[in-house]
Structure formats: C-alpha cells, structure tokens
Amino acid sequence: MPINSYIYRKSMKILKSTAISHPNIAFIKYWGNRDHDLRLPVNGSFSMNLEGLTTKTQVIFREDLSKDKLVLNEEEASGAGLARVSQILDEVREMAGLKIYAEVISENNFPTGAGIASSAAAFAALALAASKAAELELDEAALSVLARHGSGSASRSIPGGFVEWQVGDDDKSSYAFSIAPAEHWELADCVAVVSTGHKETGSTQGHPLAVTSPLQTARVADAPRRIEICRKAILERDFETFASVAEEDSDIMHAVMMTSKPALFYWQPATLRVMQAVRDWRAEGLPVFYTIDAGPNVHVITLKEKMDEVKAKLVGLEGVKDVLTASVGGAAKLLED
Ligand code: DP6
Questions:
Q1: Is 163 close to ligand 1, i.e. is its CB under 6 Å away?
Q2: What Å distances lie between residue 75 and 121, 156, 304, CA to CA?
Q3: CA distances (Å), origin 36, targets 6, 31, 58, 203, 327
Q4: How many angstroms from the chain centroid is the CA of residue 275?
Q5: CA–CA distance from 183 to each of 8, 84, 206, 237 (Å)?
Q6: From CA 314, how far away is CA 321, in angstroms rounded?
Q7: Is there an atom of ligand 1 within 6 Å of 44 CB?
Q8: All domains in the chain, ordered by first residue
Q9: Using one digit for the tens of pLDDT, what is the confidence trace for 62-93?
Q10: Each residue's pLDDT tens digit, 88-130
Q11: Is 291 in the pocket of ligand 1 (CB under 6 A)?
C-alpha cells in the first residue's frame, strides 16, 4: 500500500454506526395528523415493542458518494423510499454540520406483508444509527422525535417495553417514552396472517383521510379517556380492562377508516373470523384480545404462557395462512461496528 494512502486512511474518521430496533404494536392507535409534514398526531398512543422481530440498519457517511444510497433487504431502493430516508439524513446532516452523503444498509428478519409495520422499526433504527454515525449525542426524546419525522409509529420503537407517545404541544414535545420495561408484563403477540398481499392504502396515505370521516372527531375527543384506562391497565397488569379498551380502540379506528372518503376497508372475511374466535375464547376464560392495524391481519395479544396454545388455535382457523409470534421487546440499541 503506498504510504500516502495509509496516512489518508489513518487520519480519516470513519463515520459509521449500526443500530437494531423492533417494530411495535399499538393498543391505542395513531390515526390522523395535525401536521402531516412533521407527523404531529391528533391523539396520543400506546404500544409495546415486539421482541424477536428486528430491523438492523447500518449508516456510513462517505465522501465518495454523489447521493444517498439505500439497500433494503439486499436490494437497492430508489424513489419514495429513498426520499423518505434522505429526509432524515438531511436533518442529521444539518444538526451535525455534515456535507457528505450516506449509504444505508437495512435488513428485516421478519416478512414484509405480514401485517407488521416495518416503517416503525426502520425509522427508529435509522434515526439511532444515522445520528450516532454523525457523532451527534441525542437523548431518547430527541431520537424519538427524529424517528417520528420518518414514520409516526417509529417514535414508539425508540424506548423499550411498554411505550406511550404523548401528543405534545409542538414538534419537540411530541415524543415517546417507556411507562414500563419489557419485563413488567410477560405478554405475547400472535399475528394471524390472513393475507400477505400488498395493502391498497398504506398508513401514510390513510392518515390524511381520517379527517374525512365524521367519526374521527369523536374518536379523537375520547382518546384521552382510552389512554388513561390503557395506561392504568398496563401498570396494574389488569388484562380484562386492557383487552376491552384495546379492542374498543382498534374498532373505533376501523370505524373511522370505513367511513372515510374514500372508504378504507381493511377487514376480510378471515379477519372477522379471527376477531369472533378471539372474543369467544375470551368468553371461555382465555386471556386474549385482538388489535388490527391498516391491513387485514390480526394481532392477537395474550399472556406469554398462553402463546403456544393461542398459536395452535389460530393455526386451526379457516383462512389463517401463518402465525408469527413475538414477546415484549426492548429499546432501539446500537451495535458495535
Ligand atoms: C394503524 O406510523 O405507519 O399502525 O407516519 O405515515 O409512517 P406514517 O404512519 P404509521 O401509522 C401507523 C398507523 C397504525 C396505528 C399505530 O401504529 O398507531
């Protein structure tokens, strides 16, 4: 190796970092923004992180790039996906006074189309890895805000365990924090996959439609009540109350979706079959409830000790193609490069 190149390598700092994070499932849903660009929500929300489902993202700022580069599950991405990532990188560059582009390499260990929001884990890992690579020292709230700018629900994948995203008064105060660590309550999410097809209208396109439903005003006005009940139920490990408020919240969000213009109907016959079965099992004494995001697949929440039993029951239902399981996950974290 020529001596000059050796000196160059020794003096040049390598601005790179790798982070992992988990997707989350919301019990009190985020649906609708008061500021779409900043992703400032109209109501606060609650979730738990999903252990075992992981996104790993490496960010390398490189002098030799003429634009940002995104490699997603081993395939180079462009268009809207890359633009959304670049927006977060721009914010990081601005804060750090950096003027070079970055390569972002990201991988999920869970299938896309399984009804698990990959954008939450993706933007949480990106916010952490990019800010660290740029040598910024952001606290948890600032990281949550940065992740939120990429995807609202990503704000909730920064802290660990059971997480509340407060609605806030402005950009800086709308962030998520943990109300209890993952060990607080041994719960599990059994995701009943009824369709792996690409959803017609994703969350980003759905949020602006929320306001077109006459039910959204009532949903938002009642959100503080549901949040209070949910917080208390989680802290007290009161499964019955938790089940009832989470199902109510999911149903209210879907009522808004179904009455938006254009209407968003995510449920399929098999979705309803799972919902009905879950209600029946609960009536028989099994601790279970359902919650559904912007798609037809059903997240069935139970105690971890009942996970295998619930999974076996779900697998036996007509129309259920697969069941993925996860327990409660920790915070987004950095990996040693
Ligand atoms: C139904 O966070 O995916 O899953 O900010 O546009 O990325 P963007 O939306 P996103 O919306 C999540 C909607 C939801 C409910 C929830 O997770 O709270």
A1: no
A2: 18, 27, 35
A3: 48, 11, 27, 12, 32
A4: 22
A5: 47, 34, 34, 12
A6: 9
A7: no
A8: 3-335 (3.30.230.10)
A9: 999 999 999 999 999 999 999 999 999 999 99
A10: 999 999 999 999 999 999 999 988 767 788 899 999 999 999 9
A11: no
